[in-house]
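Record type: monomer structure entry
Structure origin: computed from sequence
Chain ID: A
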Amino acid sequence: MLTSRNPHLATLLGAVTADAAAMGLHWLYAADRLEQLQRQAPLAFRPPAAANYAGAQGYFAHGGKAAGENSFYGETCRLVIHHLARHGRFDRLAYQQEWLAHFGPGGRYTGYIDHPTRALVIRLLHCATPADYPAVSGSADSQLPALECVPALVACHRGSRSQLLDTVLEAVAVSHDHPLANEAATAAAQALADVLEGVPLAKALANAASFAGTTLQPLLADALAMPRLDAVAAAARFGMACPLEKGLPVIFHIARHAPNYATAVEANILAGGDSCGRSLLLGALLAVRDTLHDTSMEDRSGIPLAWLTRVSDLAKLVGDAGTALRLDDETPAI
């Protein structure tokens, strides 16, 4: 398990690890196929394989990746962590430049990217100079990529809650221009910030639902009211796909009922569909909850060390996380 007891570090590692764990079966929508695969072996960190999608509903997007790499969701989260490590705070213009250098033509990232990312790359490429970037708005999109920035911004923030929410909305606006994206990101940030402050997870989720707006709030309340962990039933009820009104209730349901990080991550993958889109916030919430809960090394709480060591380019992630969190005098221990 993760041996560092720093909950802010756990936030970052928990988010990125959960995405890497889900990547191999991302966008597989066939519940029966996922249940069959689970009977054969744990679902986390499966190598991407077209055979798992053959004859089943789904989209095989990550054929060029190896087990342990991140989806574009996790890559964006890592980019935000790296940005905060470089600048010490969120700087929209610098972030837009780094986004283009990472996801744009000739950039460091190779693999599938979603519509808001592609649209932002195109908009930035059409700017005459970087000085024009701040005027570029995000897409009118209300899907789970709007939450990519939340774990890093919440974990690394040291000011007031109102300042945090302003920063989150500023970062969301880089790629998304939609009221639902703003409401979901606000609720997600409130929940994670509360848990980092020691609020019990169930209470933090209930409190956060009140910030989610008229569309999301009743869905989140319904998800929290489900009596026991059943990610498959939650996905069938709310939806497996990428829209926030489908994914955020599934996140809240699993987070409310999962007994530990590993169970939550496996349940999220079993729920199918946009498992990577749900993974960042879910992984962050459970990693913090497990870290703050005083547990023994014999139980299964926390990020399994065997999982963490499978995350691609782990040394860079831990280094960026330590710098972003200003852990100069606290070497991250894993």
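Annotation 1: The chain has a mean pLDDT of 93.
Annotation 2: The two ends are 8 Å apart (CA to CA).
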